[in-house]
Structure formats: C-alpha cells, structure tokens
Specification:
The longest helix has 18 residues. This protein has ten helices and 13 strands. The radius of gyration is 20 Å and the shape is globular. With about 350 residues, it is of the alpha+beta class. The strands form two sheets. The chain has a seven-stranded mixed β-sheet, sandwiched between helices. Strands 1-2-3-6-4-5 form a six-stranded mixed β-sheet, with helices on one face. It binds adenosine-5'-diphosphate and magnesium ion (MG). The site of magnesium ion has 6 residues, from helix 2 and strand 8.
Length: about 350
Amino acid sequence: MDKRTELEQLGEFGLIERLNPKRRIINTSTLFGIGDDCAAMTYGDKVTLVSSDCLVEGIHFDMVYTPLRHLGYKAAVSNFSDIYACNGRPAQLLVTLAVSNRYSVEALEELYEGLNLACEKYGVDLVGGDTSSSNGGMFLSLTAMGECDKDKVVRRNGAKVHDLICVSGDLGAAYAGLLVLQREKAVFMANPASQPDLSDYQYIIERHLKPEARKDIVQWLSDNSILPSAMIDVSDGLASEALHICKQSNVGCELYYDKIPVDYETIRTLEEFNIVADTGALNGGEDYELLFTISQSDYEKVKTNKNISVIGHITDQSQGCNLVTPQNTTIELKAQGFNHYKKQ
Ligand code: ADP
Ligand code: MG
C-alpha cells in the first residue's frame, strides 16, 4: 500500500519544507526564495521583492464579523507588510479572486474599496490578477511586488550573536480583538436581536479588522542609517517569528517577558479571557509589527524611538531560544501561534 502521511503530522512549515527541498537556482536574476518573507529578484542595482498571500473564507476570515471593505484592506496590508519585512517598498499588487454567486457585485465592490484604500495609503498600483467562480465561499490571493536597493535587502538569516532584538508597536492586540469578535458572534448567534457594545474594545478590534503595515518604521530606520541584520513581520506571533529568525540565522536568543510591549486595552481584554497578557502577546498573530535585530552600536539611536522596543538579544545557537521571566527564570521559547494543519 502507498504510504500516506497526514498533513497534521508535518504542520504548515513542515509541509512547505517537504514540498520544497533545496532546488538548483537556474536564473542568475533569482537572489533568494523560500524561507523569507519575500522572494527576491535582481536586475542591476535594484532588487524586486515579491510576496503572495491567500485568504480563505472560514479559515482566515469569518463573514459574520468581517466587513468586506476591511477584508480587502487587511489582505493588501498584510501582503505589503511582507515587503517591508525585507526592507523594501511595495509598488504593485496583483489580486486573484474566486467567488460563488452567493456574493453580489456590490459586495465585491466593497472588497475593492478596501483594496483601493490600502493601495492609495501605501502608494501601490493595483495592476492585475485573475477572477474565477468558486463552488464554496471566497478565495482571495494577493501578490505584492516591491523594490529595494540591492545592498539594503534584509533577510531572516543575518542575525549575529550579541545583536539586539527589537519589535515595533505593541503585540497581542489583534488577537485580543479577534477573541472579542468571536465572543460577540456567539452571543449574536444565540440571540440575533442583541446589539453588541464594543466601545471598550475599539483599539483592539481595529487592530484585528484594519491593521496597518509598518511603513513608518522602515522609513525611520532608513532615515537614521540603521540597517537591521535580520527582519520578519509578526503574522503568526512573536514566538514563532523569533524562532524563524534564530533558525535561519543559526543563533539562539533571549527574550525578556517584561520588555514585550502590550497595550493596556489588550492586557485588560486578555485578562477577561483568563489569558496572561505576555502569553497572548507572544503567541497572538496578525499584529503586522516588525521584529528585527540590530547591532549594539545602533542602540543609542533606537532608544529614542518610542515605537520601537528592545526586547532581548541574540545568543549562541548552543544556548537555544529562551524567555526570561520577571523572576529571572529561563524557559524555552516555543511557537504556539497559528500554524495551518497543526492541531491548535
Ligand atoms: P509569511 O507568513 O511571511 O507570508 P509563510 O510562513 O507563509 O510567510 O511562508 C514561509 C516561506 O515559505 C515563504 O518564503 C514562502 O514564499 C514559502 N512558501 C509558502 N508556501 C509555499 C508553497 N506552497 N510553495 C513554495 N513556497 C512556499
Ligand atoms: Mg511575513
């Protein structure tokens, strides 16, 4: 009998590795591919960065609480975020859409309002895509293309021992917003006449439904002549992303629990759900903040930026990837963020 391996045995990242063993690169224009936030092609001094993301109804979004305008905006922004994560600037977007006739033209126009708004805000041209019918739900695939000077591209694999680990903004907010929306959906399903009062949760719900990519951070780093040694965007949770950087860079890390930036509204909401704020911030996904490493000599510059927190440092690989608690105990860093196919 042919061997059958279940997807959940590999998980999302194991599957990608299994399907994509090291391939011989055929074109000199291919700079790098699988394993970073973008693929990179080079023509002369410029590098073109390309990143694809797909969104599937019922997996990535729930039509009950995701307005289509927000879905379009978020899909585009999360795609641009991958270009920023390689220190690039997004410039073009391709949109591929498969929808069933359950959707009206007006609904899809709303989706495009969101896509257009994001493109306008981030200075990106929507230049093409593909459209198909679908038997069930909606499937959306976006491909962003961006540009970067060849000597400015930042990958996940450049972190060095003693580098400082930095993160922009605050973490866990999008996850906290999602928990509130899921709770309100359950209430609504039980009693469709109920009107949720979400005024206490505005920040976190906005972070979930209408996230922003950190164009400002990439610009600030460039203005201050700081070139991160490694960078990734936080889409699957801080712990998961830190482990990606360490694995690709062959280093270890020490992250300090009490340095992880968490907004007050996030802390308060996670408490309502009996989740320790730091745990939510470590594992909650879709923050689209930037996690990056810098040389210690850039510390004086970085500490002047209130939107950047230094949360740890890079260690030798033999020391592993660890979290230091406020009580000064060390625990192993584990990825519990979202991973397709793994049992959650
Ligand atoms: P991100 O969260 O930054 O979008 P992913 O975790 O989705 O990145 O993907 C990790 C890496 O694996 C990326 O370099 C991506 O291009 C690559 N990858 C993902 N899915 C596939 C696939 N089906 N075939 C080839 N490469 C893939
Ligand atoms: Mg990414």
